[in-house]
Specification:
The chain is of the alpha+beta class. Among the domains are: about 30-100; about 375-585, no CATH class; about 730-820, Alpha-Beta Plaits; about 835-925, RRM (RNA recognition motif) domain (Alpha-Beta Plaits, 2-Layer Sandwich). About 55% of the residues lie in helices and about 5% in strands. The strands form 3 sheets. Strands 2-3-1-5-4 form a 5-stranded antiparallel beta sheet. α7 (about 140-155) packs antiparallel against α8 (about 160-180) and α16 packs antiparallel against α17 (about 360-375). The longest helix has about 40 residues, at about 10-50. It starts with 7 loop residues before the first helix and ends with a helix. It is found in: Nucleus. This is RRM domain-containing protein. GO terms for molecular function: RNA binding.
Length: about 1000
């Protein structure tokens, strides 16, 4: 064989060697893939057994990512998102995986949907930036602009990271502006208009940005960048806005620094709470909501911060379903085990339910309950709270004045399910106070008028749980329910049973039993009670004496053995401990419908250690029984109550008085008590002329009302500058502090009848046509809520005069009453008439769900309506009354006769001629016709009630009837109103009375003749 020729044997051996090497290299990959697939199978089984296994979902997604199973990973992510909200990191991983294979329009739309779902779970700046950039890459500029505006609204006020969003949005608008400019080409008129419009958008963005305090924003660079888009430089007021935002940033900087520091979860959460409390003082709801969003993103499993957030949005944004409902839903998704959050969500669903969509509302409420009770509860009290929220909703759906068998059956079935569920997973300790069966019994007795059903619930359910038959509170509530809706016979039986079963508060039961017999019983039943109570107290006192002796003996044994007295609890302490354990649910056995692992914090680098994030509400004290007006004193005594019964045999007081002790020792001679000075007393010591106190008021000192109204008269205290500044801020927040400028009085008008949700931005545009406006002061109450009136200040007198012409202008659905400003007497009055208006009707008794359009449709067929006004509360709910104005009195009277006492939406209405001056008499007359009101009569008495300020007449009169002055028979006014026959009868009656009068001489003759 020639040198250099190929050797087939060597080649074959080389191929085998290389093949073996390749197998060795691929073997670890195959083993790793097999391990990953085995891991996927194991985790999938665990999730199938417990869908709430949070860590299992995360590990399954990671394993599928490593295997490259995109379709399976997508299914795993969808399944996890149905149970838990995903963190921003999980959403970004999902979106980036989908972007790798995105090619068609349908796949792009799927990624858009993922972005929309992601930004709803938690507030995250990076998610919004990625969303904007993705939309920009799709080429749809209008859609990109819409996403950018949403991003500015959601995270544009984020102090720490909001600058990124502003930069990205401005970048998009600048690119659009650059694309409109074509160098070397003369633009057309339309192109010039488009360029000018785009330039205005960029300018508007810069104006908005300088008003937001942003930490990483350089003010000089922002103004320099903005000056490129403003001819002649930025506007002057932008420098002022930027300065204000920088000052606001300085106030927030300490809190932001503390949030950045490496500290524990508890300390960081405390910083968030302090930060939120400080921003609330500035009356900036958007900034407060932004902070709450940051807090719940870092502490998504803390139900406490979620509860604070939900309470805030419900109070601050009441009526805005697009704000309240998403927050409530997210709170329950993050902390499904919280009974309070489940209750808030169910309440919010009811608040924004739409008429005609009852089935959809019921499905949402039921879904919220199922999510709560199916999450693996660790506390029976939380389960009880969730079930109670659901049962209250079902009770509200029952229309008792209509056929309601179906709704009542649903309520009963749900109540029975609630009792069985709590008993199954938590035992009798789950509902220690028996809230659910007690609520059920009350509904059956009070609304369904079924005392038999209520009695069965108490006997078969309540009294057989948690030793309730020994609880005096339970017996008293049962007795009061029976007495209100049951029979006297059953009530007496309950008193007898309670007297036999109760040991601790027998005196309370006996007192209530005695009053019952005094009010309803006979001599025989009263005697029977006395015998029963006497025999029972003999047994109870004997038992108490035995317990006291046994307790003393045990204490003596422990003392002789040298052990500490408190080392071993006595029977009394044991009884007290049992009572406390029955009144609180702090120590409860873990029982869960499903196995639950303790999830870690999602979206936070700091994770809770040794805590599951569940806060138990305090259930202190026993349930007070319901009582009628007669049994209001049947309530059990407070903790530490001691009976007035004589002490048991052998009882000794621990402290004995010293020998010779006398309590009734007379005071020494000349002793004088601290008698109050007589009226008109003046101190003899007067301060010297020019005396000034050098003592500054303490921190938190509040000035008087007079000083608030007249700031120039406020005394100067150099050491109290800071408290006064805080006081001024508080006054400004409530709309109280005003500047005393006589020139402004000439240019001010008074606005009233404002909608309670109207603010400065809605009022000023309406009156700008009259002239330049200097200020608008909306008067607010102590909770910073509008009172419905305010003061509008123009820069000129002519503007104020023109503003008066806009009286009755409709703003936000209500006519605004405009009147001159009166700074001296404050005689501003609303424009509603106070006398009788014959062309206007007053309608009362309307159903609360009727709107103005509904009332108008009912009254329009009887006459043309000029104006209609439905009286509402602050929250916009109807008061059930309405004013309807017509062109003339004849039409109003015709409509009144046609519609009075008619039935409208299931309720009988009263229609009257509007007369606010006769309001009191109208409300007192039955039937609603007006006229003089009859004398009010006290219930249970035939005598008329005495009016206010009148002295009541005694039972006997010591003045002789002959001497008493006779009242005139008929007044001329009343005589004209009566018929001639009535006047004649009354005249003859008066003459007979005059003839029957006797003088003193007549009386003397009568006595002498006898």
């Amino acid at each position: 064989m020639e040198e250099g020729a190929d050797n087939p044997i060597e080649d074959e051996q080389h191929m085998e060697t290389s093949s073996d090497d390749s197998d060795d290299d691929s073997e670890p990959d195959d083993v790793k893939e097999d391990q990953l697939r085995q891991k996927v199978e194991e985790i999938s089984k665990q999730i199938a057994e417990n869908v709430l296994y949070y860590d299992g979902h995360v590990n399954l997604i990671k394993a599928l990512q490593e295997l490259g199973e995109l379709e399976e990973a997508r299914k795993a992510r969808e399944k996890m998102s149905e149970v838990y909200p995903l963190t921003a990191e999980l959403w970004l991983e999902w979106i980036r995986d989908e972007q790798k294979v995105c090619s068609s329009e349908e796949e792009k739309q799927f990624i858009r949907d993922l972005f929309d779902r992601a930004v709803k779970d938690y507030m995250n700046v990076q998610l919004w930036v990625e969303y904007i950039m993705f939309m920009l890459g799709c080429g749809d500029m209008e859609a990109t602009r819409m996403v950018g505006e949403r991003a500015l609204t959601a995270v544009g006020t984020h102090v720490a990271e909001g600058t990124m969003v502003w930069e990205v949005v401005l970048m998009v608008e600048k690119q659009i502006y650059a694309s409109l400019q074509k160098p070397g080409v003369v633009p057309s008129d339309q192109e010039l208009k488009n360029q000018e419009k785009q330039l205005q958008k960029i300018q508007k963005l810069f104006k908005r940005q300088v008003r937001v305090p942003l930490r990483s924003c350089n003010s000089d660079s922002v103004l320099e960048e903005a000056s490129e888009y403003f001819e002649g430089g930025v506007e002057k007021y932008m420098h002022d806005d930027l300065k204000k935002s920088q000052n606001a940033l300085k106030e927030r900087a300490p809190y932001e620094d503390e949030l950045i520091e490496d500290q524990g979860d508890a300390e960081k959460l405390a910083v968030y709470r302090k930060y939120i409390a400080r921003i609330k003082e500035t009356n900036n709801p958007a900034a407060v909501q932004n902070l709450y969003e940051r807090a719940v993103a870092d502490f998504c499993l803390d139900p406490g911060i979620w509860e604070e957030y939900v309470r805030f949005v419900i109070h601050q944004f009441y009526g805005l379903d697009y704000v309240v409902l998403p927050v409530c839903e997210r709170s329950q998704r993050n902390c499904p085990w919280s009974g309070a959050l489940c209750e808030f969500y169910i309440t919010a669903i009811q608040m924004f339910s739409v008429e005609g969509e009852e089935d959809s509302t019921a499905a949402k409420v039921k879904g919220a309950l199922e999510k709560g009770i199916g999450c693996g509860l660790q506390s029976g009290s939380e389960a009880t709270r969730m079930w109670m929220a659901y049962l209250v909703y079902l009770r509200r759906q029952i229309k008792w004045d209509q056929p309601h068998d179906k709704q009542l059956d649903a309520f009963r079935e749900a109540t029975q399910q609630a009792v069985e569920f709590i008993d199954k997973y938590f035992g009798e300790e789950g509902d220690l106070e028996s809230r659910i069966p007690r609520f059920w019994a009350q509904i059956e007795a009070e609304y369904e008028k079924s005392p038999e059903q209520a009695r069965a619930i108490w006997n078969d359910t309540i009294m057989k749980r948690n030793n309730n038959f020994n609880n005096a509170n339970m017996w008293l509530e049962f007795i009061n329910l029976e007495r209100s809706f049951g029979t006297e016979k059953h009530c007496r039986k309950l008193f007898r049973r309670a007297l036999e079963r109760v040991w601790d508060w027998v005196e309370v039961i006996g007192s209530a039993y005695q009053r019952f017999e005094e009010e309803t019983g006979t001599l025989e039943t009263m005697e029977e009670f006395n015998e029963r109570y006497k025999d029972r107290m003999v047994i109870v006192n004997k038992k108490r004496a035995e317990d006291a002796i046994n307790e003393a003996e045990e204490e003596g044994k422990e003392t002789r053995s040298g052990r500490r007295l408190k080392e071993r609890p006595s029977k009394k302490e044991k009884k007290k401990a049992r009572a406390e354990s029955s009144n609180t649910q702090a120590q409860e056995v873990f029982k869960s419908p499903l196995p639950v692992t303790k999830p870690a914090y999602r979206g936070s680098s700091d994770k809770l250690k040794g805590s599951n994030g569940i806060s138990e509400p305090q259930q202190g004290g026993k349930v007070q029984p319901r009582s009628t007006s007669k049994d209001s004193t049947d309530m059990p005594p407070p903790t530490g109550f001691k009976s007035d019964m004589p002490p048991p045999p052998g009882f000794k007081s621990d402290v004995a008085p010293p020998p010779g002790f006398k309590s009734d020792v007379a005071p020494p001679p000349g002793f004088k008590s601290d008698v109050a000075p007589p009226p008109g007393f003046k101190s003899d010591v007067a301060p010297p002329p020019g005396f000034k106190s050098d003592v500054a008021p303490p921190p938190g000192f509040k000035t008087s009302i007079a000083e608030k109204l007249h700031p120039t008269k406020r005394k100067a205290h150099p050491s109290t500058d800071e408290p006064e500044a805080k006081s001024f801020k508080a006054e400004e927040a409530h709309g109280v502090l005003t500047k005393n400028n006589p020139q402004d009085d000439m240019c001010t008008i008074f606005l009233s009848n404002l909608d309670f949700h109207v603010d400065k931005d809605e009022i000023i545009p309406v009156f700008q046509q009259c002239g330049d406006i200097a200020d608008f002061r909306l008067v607010k109450d102590f909770r910073c809520r509008s009172k419905g009136f305010g003061y509008l200040v123009f820069k000129t007198r002519e503007g104020a005069v023109k503003g008066l012409e806009l009286d009755r202008t409709i703003v936000n659905g209500r006519p605004v009453f405009v009147s001159p400003y009166d700074p001296d007497n404050h005689t501003h009055k609303f424009r509603y008439a106070l006398n009788e208006e014959k062309n206007k009707l007053f309608v009362r008794g309307l159903s609360f769900d009727l709107t103005e359009d509904d009332v108008k449709k009912a009254f329009e067929p009887h006459g043309k309506i000029k104006d209609i006004r439905l009286v509402v509360y602050r929250n916009g709910h109807s008061k059930g009354t309405c004013y309807i104005e017509y062109d003339d009195a004849e039409t109003a009277e015709k409509v009144r006769q046609a519609m009075d006492e008619e039935e409208l939406n299931g309720k009988t209405i009263n229609v009257l001629i509007s007369d606010p001056s006769n309001k009191k008499s109208l409300t007192a007359v039955s039937g609603g016709r007006g006229g003089p009101s009859p004398s009010p009569v006290v219930l249970g008495s035939s005598r008329p009630r005495q009016g206010s300020g009148m002295r009541g007449r005694g039972m006997f009169s010591f003045m002789p009837r002959v001497v008493q002055r006779q009242k005139p028979a008929v007044s001329p006014t009343n005589q004209d109103q009566k018929s001639p026959a009535e006047n004649q009868d009354q005249k003859s009656s008066a003459e007979n009375q005059d003839q029957n009068k006797k003088s003193n001489a007549d009386f003397r003759k009568m006595f002498l003749s006898k």
